[in-house]
């Protein structure tokens, strides 16, 4: 037995890896996630007992957080205190965060990015309406 057989804990792809990679971290060829190759001792014990081997995840699977989504929502909310100065950076960060979440479907924070974009665009609409109202008020005073 020179090869190690196990499954990717993320996408369940069956993998056969040479024994020299035991204990090392490799990338799954299907999902491109880093996975740790189980050690030879564990594989040898399971295989000698006649049972098939499915590698459990080495630790509870970690789900990445989209920090940019949290930053976007914070910037949009802080734009209320800064008279809209942080609104545009917040919307830009929201779009970047949404793109990151689209590329990595398991990433958490997509709802925060959407919330930042919705609140940001609503604030832009309210600001434009307020500006139009102010301009019409000033023009009515000039008459």
Keywords, please?
143 residues; two-stranded antiparallel sheet; 4 helices
Biggest β-sheet strands, sense, barrel: 2 strands, antiparallel
Helix content: 40-55%
Domain count = 2
The rounded Rg comes to: 26 Å
Order of helices and strands: EEEEHHHH
What is the rounded distance between the termini? Answer: 94 Å
Structural class: mainly alpha
Outline the low-pLDDT stretches. 42-49
Oligomer: single chain
The overall pLDDT average reads: 84
Number of strands: 4
Characterize the overall form: rod-shaped
| Approximate strand percentage | 5-15%
Provide an overview of this structure.
- The chain is mainly alpha-helical and 143 residues long.
- The protein has two domains: 46 residues, Rubrerythrin, domain 2; 76 residues.
- The chain contains four helices and four strands, in the order E-E-E-E-H-H-H-H.
- The strands form two sheets. Strands 1-2 form a two-stranded antiparallel sheet. The chain has a two-stranded antiparallel sheet with strand order 3-4.
- About 6% of the residues have low confidence.
List the helices and strands and how they pair.
Elements: E1 3-7, E2 14-18, E3 25-27, E4 34-36, H1 40-48, H2 67-78, H3 87-103, H4 110-142
Antiparallel strand pairs: 1-2, 3-4
In short:
The chain has 4 helices and 4 strands, in the order ββββαααα.
């Amino acid at each position: 037995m020179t090869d190690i057989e196990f499954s990717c804990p993320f996408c369940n792809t069956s993998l056969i890896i040479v024994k020299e990679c035991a204990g090392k971290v490799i990338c799954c060829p299907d999902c491109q996630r880093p996975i740790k190759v189980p050690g030879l001792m564990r594989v040898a014990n399971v295989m000698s007992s006649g049972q098939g081997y499915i590698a459990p995840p080495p630790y509870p699977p970690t789900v990445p957080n989209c920090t940019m989504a949290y930053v976007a929502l914070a910037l949009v909310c802080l734009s209320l205190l800064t008279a809209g100065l942080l609104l545009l950076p917040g919307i830009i960060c929201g779009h970047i965060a949404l793109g990151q979440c689209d590329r990595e479907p398991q990433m958490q924070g997509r709802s925060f990015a959407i919330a930042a974009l919705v609140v940001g665009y609503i604030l832009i609409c309210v600001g434009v309406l307020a500006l139009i109202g102010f301009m019409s008020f000033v023009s009515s005073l000039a008459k």
